[in-house]
Amino acid sequence: MDYHHIPVSALLKELGTDPDAGLTGADAAARLSQVGPNALPEPPGKPLILRFLGQFADFMIFVLFAAAGLSFAVSCLEGKPDYLEPAIILAIIVLNAVLGVFQESRAEHSLAALKKLSTPKTRVVRDGRTQFLPCSELVPGDIILLETGQFIPADARLLTAVNLTVQEASLTGESVPSEKDAHGTPAKDSPPADWSNCVFSSCVVANGHGTAVVTATGLSTEIGKIAKHLMNGETPPTPLQKRLASVGKTLGLVCLLICAGIFVLGTMQGRPPVQMLMTAVSLAVAAIPEGLPAVVTIMLSIGVERMAKQNAVIRKLPAVETLGSATYICTDKTGTLTQNRMTAVACFAARHPYRLPKDEAVQAVSRLLLSAALCCNSDGATGEPTENALVAAAGRLSEKSASELGLLPYRRLLEVPFQSSRKCMLVVGRTPDGGCLLIAKGAPDVLLAHSTHAYEDGSLRPIRPQSWLRQNQTYAQQALRVLAVATRQLSQEEYEQALREKDEETRFRLLCRRLSLQGLVALWDPPRPECAQAVAECEQAGIATVMITGDHPDTARAIASEIGIGRNGSVVTGTMLSRMDDETLQSTVKTCRVYARVQPEHKVRIVQALQAQGEVVAMTGDGVNDAPALRSADIGCAMGITGTDVAKSAADMILMDDNFATIISAVREGRGIYDNIRKAIHFLLSCNAGEILLIVLCILFRLPSPLVAIQLLWINLVTDSFPAIALALEPPEPGIMNRKPEPAGASLFSRARTFRLILEGCMIGMLAFLGFLLHGTTCCFLVLGLSELVHTLNIKNDRSLFTSGLFENPFLTFAILAGIALQFVIVSIPALAGVFAVTALSAEALRATVLLSLVPLVVVEIEKHVFRDGADR
Fold it and tell me: Phi then psi for 710, rounded to 5 degrees?
């Protein structure tokens, strides 16, 4: 059907819907079962078998296969074909592949769960009331409400449109927003780009608002028809993963050079070349940290799950890394630092201050509140909080009081929506007497500038701005948000002239002049009780908190003072920012913590000025115009409740509760994740260093190879992989928010930590070597594996084990105990002992094994107590 061409009445009849009441819940459910969810298909994932086979597409896996082949070839050359050792090597390869698939699946499931958490919702009229529903539940016939900044959830025919323009670049490629007209009549054979009376799924409302009836969902939409071209590719690796992959390759090359050196040295000593080749290959397999990127992937996935539980939904994985380095958090005031529960508590009308709701019956107050409510698009429940408060205040007026004012019924004819640059909204409506009444609502300083008269003592008099400005300042100093309301009677000619004008700015200038000020309404939005503590925690963590708001400077100063931001009381306004050059601004941002009357473009300049000085900036935002600042910031944080779809799509992280304290929780988790990644890498590299040293020492002292390939592979799997993954579940250390942020791009390890890593690796290698000298291969095998497992207790915390506790991470405890048990099972069961070339130990050898394995714990505990102050990380 040509939904764009037939009359609206026929379309509504065809779709079986009511423009005012919408569909019933039962009807919508039945349609949903027929047409399916309103969603485009997800990109096809790799089949499990291909993901499994993909684990073998790695250079080191090829080395493992070569080891298995060499092992079998050597046994054949010796006349004793051995199928067992190659089979075990292949089994370990398969086990590693299974582990890799598990890690990938865990990461994918985490990101899929996060996607569900941030599923967009839209306002829908069903059963005669406005509801917030997931976009996926929309069906043809639903009545949807459109507003600025919203992603259009489905193809729809417009029923009403007020100054509505839509950015359709994702569909048509046209960069200029398309003007929409609910009464447009495009030709039947015109392309979708010319359908001015329709809106399309995945496009964005650039300006204005309207209502529409859904005509197509899912794959039936215009965007759905080209869905196969829009499939997203794989998630790219994060900067840290790229760095680690690069580090892993570098270390791999170094290890291969060492292996080549060992091979040459061994053959020069007269050892059989085949034996030395097997030793070199085994060492390469055991020593190269090929699992680093995979470990980091699973750590990041676990981290984003933790953050989601704290109401911080990560949209882009690099944000997890960047959070630990944040030095500035630039935040909006309303709804983030405050509760976003606006209440009208006072007003100034007829040159007298009044308290609300006590004085609502005063005629001047009633007229002011009703006029303010008529200039709102809220229904009192689902709209913007400020408008909800005004509508609620007017709703308390008695029916008699409201009717006596002569404003009702008020039939709206025209609207100029609020814009942050204008800080004002205008509506024009028909009053009961047939006249055209303009009502303006906005910032007091803006409306005062456009007003020539004011209502004083029941009559219109020339305005005296100073008295109004003083009252505005009085309210602002009490941390109240202040709105002014003004009116103007329009002639029919003036209304028609404004109606003919298509340019919104010109229309605004035509209407917003010669206004008569009705009064001021003061609204109270209390600070969130947890914000003061969160700001203090930020300060302690070396993170500066900056408030950026569009409110009056005195309101901003009062709220900031109450929660501990900008203790010197200085406030920089948007006007002052506009006059600053970049050099002056860079000097200003060093000390300023409160900005007021700020425009969205100012936010971008503030972010860039801080970044120019090497700061890592997190920025919150909720509006369409905040998107550039969110993209410019190192970490863009969109509001989950009040945020527009455009802001959310530009952000790295979504605050599901719009709460500033949630950012601090996310920073804490981000630091914890970064610490855990560093611990895992420290652990893996120190263990690899110990294995390399053990082999090198045996070659240098002309001793036989201490361990065979199977033993090295087993140790690599049991004592490296599982504990490293378990370290991802370490909780953040208690003092993690007492230290300064990590410099952006800084090395993972300080010099002190690198030095410790090398010494710890040497210690593990020397202990295994000593075990080999005292009691042979079995003791060496056990000491190497057990000392690495014990070493995880050293790595898990920079504090002493006796103060941090043994069992705060049950997953790590299980990994260690399971590893110890498996090591002794191999030695104790004759069948397994034969496979792994080990024998049962004597009581003396067992005591020596246990004592040697515990040495790393004792040595590092002494080092922590004597030398370490926790400052070097």
Answer: -60, -40
Q: How far apart (Å, rounded) are the C-alpha atoms in residues 528 and 290?
A: 47
CA atoms of 92 and 577, how far apart (whole Å): 63
Strand ordering across the sheet containing 635-639: 312-314, 653-655, 635-639, 617-621, 328-331, 544-548, 594-596, 572-573
Annotated catalytic, 82? no
Choice among 142, 155, 332, 658 that is catalytic: 332
Q: From residue 820, how far is each of 340, 777, 778, 817 by CA, in Å?
A: 55, 17, 14, 5
DSSP annotation of 238:
P
Per-residue confidence at 116, pLDDT binned at 50, 70, 90?
low
Please state, in angstroms and rounded to a whole number, the distance separating the CA atoms of residues 412 and 329. Answer: 42
Contact (CB, 8 A) for 373 and 394: yes
Angle between helices 777-795 and 843-866 (to 10 degrees): 30
| pLDDT single digits (tens) 521-553 | 999 999 988 889 999 999 999 999 999 988 889
| Cis peptide bond N-terminal to 409, omega within 30 | yes
Long-range contacts of 843-848 (CB under 8 A, 24+ apart): 844/775, 845/774, 845/775, 845/778, 845/779, 848/771, 848/774, 848/775, 848/779
Residues 73 and 134: their CA atoms lie apart, in Å, by: 62
Of 147, 499, 84, 543, which is closest to residue 331 (Cα–Cα)? Answer: 543
Strands 436-442 and 451-456 come out as unpaired
Report the C-alpha gap between 328 and 612 in whole angstroms: 13
Q: How far apart are CA 322 and CA 741, in angstroms?
A: 10
* Amino acid code (one letter) for 812: L
Supply the pLDDT for residue 495.
93
Task: Please say whether the beta carbons of 414 and 428 come within 8 A.
Answer: yes
> For the segment 409-424, what is each residue's pLDDT rounded down to a tens digit?
899 999 998 887 788 9
DSSP character string of 791-847: HHHHHS-SS-HHHH-SSS-HHHHHHHHHHHHHHHHHHHSHHHHHHTT--PPPHHHHH
Nearest to 622 by CA among 549, 533, 525, 564: 549
d(CA 137, CA 497) in angstroms, rounded, equals: 42
Buried/exposed code over 738-751 (b: 16+ C-beta within 10 A; e: otherwise)? eeebbebeeebbee
Q: What is the DSSP string of 456-497?
A: ETTEEEE--HHHHHHHHHHHHHTT-EEEEEEEEEEPHHHHHH
Structure tokens of 712?
């090295």
User: Model confidence over 772-788: pLDDT tens digits?
Assistant: 999 999 999 999 999 99
